[in-house]
Design a protein that fits this description.
The chain has 147 residues and is mainly α. The protein is built from 5 helices and no strands. It is 64% helix and 0% strand.
């Protein structure tokens, strides 16, 4: 309700109905958009060979996955938390190992495994029209990913 309506109601002496609070499931696309941004920054860090920055974005991406699982375990009859357990979490293991080994080549390979898992999940949920890429050919962020 905007202030003009409130002012008119006050002048007219009208009774305003209380605003009901509703609980709803968070919008999955927004949560996934945050994951996509973090994963893209992870890819750019890996592509630049910056293991310290890649470790940071790896951690943030995995936290976002857990947030998605907690906030939207199921979305429109899609078992989101289960799919993340079966597809996403295992796909991050090669990246974790590559970051720990400070191996830039394996980090780039790890990104491809993560992207493949994203696209496999989209296909499994009839959202194959959402195709993720590593996105390392362009950097839209005002951030350097070089070590």
């Amino acid at each position: 309700m905007n202030w003009k309506i409130l002012a008119l109601a006050a002048v007219a002496g009208a009774q305003l109905a209380p605003v009901e609070e509703t609980t709803s499931t968070p919008e999955l696309a927004l949560l996934m958009g945050d994951l996509q941004r973090l994963t893209h920054k992870l890819a750019l860090s890996a592509d630049a060979g910056n293991t310290e920055l890649a470790a940071f974005y790896l951690h943030e991406s995995q936290e976002q996955l857990r947030k998605i699982q907690n906030e939207t375990p199921e979305y429109e009859n899609i078992p989101v938390a289960l799919l993340i357990d079966r597809l996403a979490h295992p796909a991050y293991v090669p990246m974790q190992e590559a970051v720990a080994a400070k191996d830039a080549k394996r980090m780039r390979e790890g990104i491809h495994a993560i992207v493949q898992a994203c696209n496999a999940c989209h296909t499994a949920t009839q959202h194959a029209f959402i195709r993720i890429t590593p996105g390392t050919e362009s950097n839209p962020f005002n951030q350097s990913f070089a070590p």
